[in-house]
Amino acid sequence: HDHSQDQILVAICRRSGMLEIYDLLDIKRSPNDVSPIWQSRGCSHGASVLAHCNQDIAVRLPQTHKVEAAEIRIFVTGPSLSLGGENDADKDAWMLRSLCILVNTSLGDLHLYSGCKRSSNLNLEFTRIPLGNVSRPSEEAGRHLTKLRRKRIASERLSTMFRTNRLHRFCAISGEDGLFAATERPLWFVSERGTPTVVSHKSRHVAPAGGRPVPVSGFSAAMPTRFQNASCGFLTLHERIGRIGSQRLTLYSGLYDVFSPHGVLPGGGICVQKVPLGVTVRHIEFIDDASVSTSNRPIYVMLISREIEADQSYLNDDGLSPEERQRIKDEKEAARIKKQVEADLGGFDIEQEWVEEIEREDCFEVDRNLGFAPPIPQRKYEVWLVDASSQFSVLDKYELDDFEHGTALKSLFLTNVVEDSDETPEKSLFVSVGTSFIDQDGEDLASKGRVLLFQVKKPKKTGVDRRQAPLHLNLKSEKEITVGPVTSLSSLKSEDTYRVVVGAGAEVTVEQWGSGKLTQVGFYHAHMQVQEIVLFKTFFLLSDAYDSLHFLVWRESDKSLTLLAKDYEPTQVFAAGLISRGGAMAFVCHDDRQNLKFFQYAPADAEARGGNKLVCRADIHIGSQTTALQSHWCQSSLLFNSCTMPSTLAALKQQDALFGRLEDDQRFAVSFGTTDGSVGSIISLSEPVFWRLTALQSVMSNALESNCALSHRAWRLFRRSTSRGGCRSNDRKKGTIDGDLVMKFVDLALYEQEDLASSIGTTVGLLMDNLLEMQCASSII
After folding, report:
1. Cα 300 vs. chain centroid, distance in angstroms?
2. Strand partners of residue 203
């Protein structure tokens, strides 16, 4: 490529928000009288479009904020180009590359613009890309810094006007170009199928936020020549736990797991790695045992199904002659007539038991003149033990029986209880699998199931490194369940005794491990079908497939399950979960109408009917279907930059012994994935934040344009069910904040943010801080 024809441009963003681009040759010719070749207003104010304009065009400016661009960077996102740049791969890569401008304002906001040319005038325009990401410093980090200075842990140095560059361009990191923003919460600006997007950067053993302005103080995409195996990698220098100011240098070999074909960037600051297995994964569980699974070698167990074609060639020829087949058919017909005559003379109906006597050969026969019996598709279930450190390679597998379906999987501890023994019982880690049998002729007979208990074993050879030793599944016990298919498995801990809770059919049984087998010690009879059981201490949240939620408690004294309250509305439950904040807890229910309902156990409430009914507190329509609600701990903005949460949390508690006592620091949320490929979180908010965001949600639904002029409020209203009369009352509780809507506030222009904030009587900074804490709490990684 001939670089002699390249044009060097200089971009300047003035304090007024005017972005000007000059040609370097024009500056050299007449430095005192030079005109920009392109200029636009509103660069540091979050304008939606940066287009070429004249100086005299008036634009609206913020009224209460004095903001300017602290740093700007022009860069390209997309696949890297080779040195020659003339092959076919580079020509295709040009279609996925985008010219972008990133503006870091004095308030800490990040505005990303992507360039394009309009066909009308062929002028270059930059359109703002909505990120839905709050990048300014948090108020909690400022309060934490004040505490550190009061304790003389952090210095009292005054901030100077000089600051280092935080926006770093990079080229050819794992074959991609982009930008790394070393801000308060570091971000990668990369391309996903030609569209710029962001990915959060988290470091190992990073110090809690607040001690230093930014966690990552150094970045370099140029690797030393001695690291030949990491030529496409990068270096970072971040603040580590320990004394304030101590740093850690980390070398990365690249981002191959983030970019295609290995990774997918769905947005929201996360990346997803694709692992093709060739089967359908029904359940997956992490083996939480230090002797088996480590951070360098995480071990998972999977319940998978694969499609096979069953051979039916044995139906083509039974080895009989036509005369023999006719004779057998006549004998069966005579026996059937005789039995029917005896039934008529005896006065009873023989048709009641016809299902059990039906035979396959009476249904059809193979006409060899037309063709042979074709293979039929069947589903085979297996239990896999996989190693995540080596692309989820299969270490061992266990194949279930024919016509046996895997329905539940759980990794749990069980206590080996020995009766009439004074020894302290030991606990062991088991992999429990719940199954159901379906007869080969269909579901005419009642289904049964099994509970299988596996242990992950290592070989006892002394010459093999036990950390890298091969693992295998060892079947320890199996128990047949006759009341129905096993649909749920959970672990119950009561008085240092671990038991397994089995949901099968309409029965909930508590099984105890001892003498190499499971023994039932307690039970509860549900109404229809046990869908899922969620445990919290000794409390049970039982979701019935057709009869909503039941709240139970386990009493160790008499080993009984007692119903405390239930929801009396006939709801088809798809998933259930628990959310909490401080000492308050709520139950989340997802139904067949794609709604979410929130219940509380409040015996003193008038709606509880004396404590027998779960009180509905809120509801919302999410418009997607899910089958699982998984709980996770809500992160604080002080811990958001860490990928090793225990070490950073321990360092934070050493700096501030009172951390964790507030209710906002004791929150558990639920996350879920939907059938259309989206991921969401449900978190609880404090009352002041809830009412502030409720007011913001109300004004935004009126002020912002909606898609196709549809009502956003109507979309989120609870959808009533018509099944069984739809006996739910007409009133809707609402009481839920739509995070997708309020997070659009982050991507508005600054003057629009001021208008919305003033209309509800608050400030932009307070709203942004509330949205930041909501963003950190909803993060599941």
Report:
1. 17
2. 642
